[in-house]
Amino acid sequence: MSDNKQGVFCISLDFELQWGVFEKMKVGNQANIYFNNTRVAIPAMLELFSQHDIQVTWAIVGMIFNQNVEMWNKNKPDLLPGYINKSVSSYHWCDLRLEYIQESNLFAPELIDQIKSTPGVEICTHSYSHYYCQEKGQTISQFKVDLEKAKELAFAKGISIESLVFPRNQFNNAYMNVCHQMGIKSVRTNPDKWYWDTSRKDTLAVKIMRTADVWFPINRKSVVPLDSINVDENPVKIPASRLYRAWTKNRMLNTLKMKRILSEMTLAAKTGGLYHLWWHPHNFGNHPDECLSELKQILEHYTYLQKEYGLLSMNMKGLRSHLIKTQHEG
Questions:
Q1: What is the DSSP letter of 244?
Q2: What pLDDT was estimated at residue 211?
Q3: Whole-angstrom Cα Rg for the chain
């Protein structure tokens, strides 16, 4: 370990259910199976995290806090996102399909209760409506109203929101001031690579590079030096390292992916850096058992690195506090 600094392993999860993929996934039996698998996989994830003393940030779409469609309608803000492209509005999508959608694909307050009761958990916001901060037509004022609603429903469950993950990783620096005003102390930012810059057009080249980076060493800077994170910013920007891609039927690609993740974790432990892994719980929807097996492998490797090098597990809230302490007092 360089300079006796301990590395940090951070996990953040974008908990969305169908709100996160409504433009892409049709309603129907396939979606029902997918999200039913997701709902079963989440308690299994929580159990694995508990067994390995892993702290996790759960960034939850605020709409999931609702019990049912009636409550969802009641909680509609007076000011909705003014997207020019209506197809990206979760309100527009849901209004058109209410009679066809299973409520269990949209709402899960009982799962939030399970998450909340798990040790080491930080619950933060993924906006209320899966809000797109780079979409044409929406405004900072509309985003603020959305964030207020997300905090309101969380507060009703005794949850104080201090961190934010932008939906679709649409980080917008212009929105940092309103986040600060709303009590957000940390946000997740994207890996420092051009193909993760969401202000760029989502071209074929971008998609190819993001996919290839899962298996091949395109991004060689996935481990972030802890002292490169500016704790004097409000909110503090906590960079992501890597998206965990779900298990596929291609054994070679799974092996390459896991080799990358485990070796990057090891590098963070040896050099005292940050390794920030993220995914969506619904990514486990197609092959939950296989994905959970890979997660177990990742967490077992963390346990080894914790014992061998002192690697720390921290959620985003804990990491911010840790950085303030080490940078200001160290």
A1: P
A2: 59
A3: 19
Cα 215 from Cα 212, distance rounded (Å): 6
Domains in the chain: boundaries: 2-329
Q: In this predicted structure, what is the pLDDT of residue 197?
A: 54
Backbone angles phi, psi at 240, to 5 degrees: -80, 155
Report helix, strand or coil for 101: coil
Q: Which residues contact 93 (CB under 8 A, 6 or more apart)?
A: 22, 23, 87
pTM of the complete model beyond 0.85: yes
Fold annotation for 2-329: TIM Barrel (3.20.20)
- Tokens 């007076």 correspond to 78
Rounded Cα distance, 309 and 280, in Å: 28
Q: Is 169 left (phi over 0), alpha (psi -120 to 50) or beta?
A: left
At residue 166, the pLDDT reads 96
Max Cα distance, the chain (Å): 60
Sort 261 into a burial class: Cβ within 10 Å, 0-12 / 13-18 / 19+.
Answer: buried
- Which amino acid type is present at position 277? L
- Of 161, 94, 99, residue with least CA distance to 126: 161
Other Cβ atoms less than 10 A from the Cβ of 172: the count is 17
Query: Tens digits of per-residue pLDDT, 135-194?
Result: 999 999 999 999 999 999 999 999 999 999 999 988 888 899 999 999 999 999 976 654
Hey, what are 6's tokens? 């301990």
The list of the chain residues with pLDDT below 70 reads: 1-4, 191-220, 329-330
Task: Identify the CA nearest to 167 among candidates 217, 129, 218.
Answer: 129
Phi, psi (degrees; rounded to nearest 5) at 313: -105, 125
Provide the strand spans (E) within the chain. Answer: 8-15, 56-60, 121-125, 163-165, 186-189, 224-225, 236-239, 242-243, 273-279, 312-313
Number of H helices, E strands in the chain: 10, 10
Tell me what pLDDT residue 79 has.
97
Tokens of 180: 């600060």
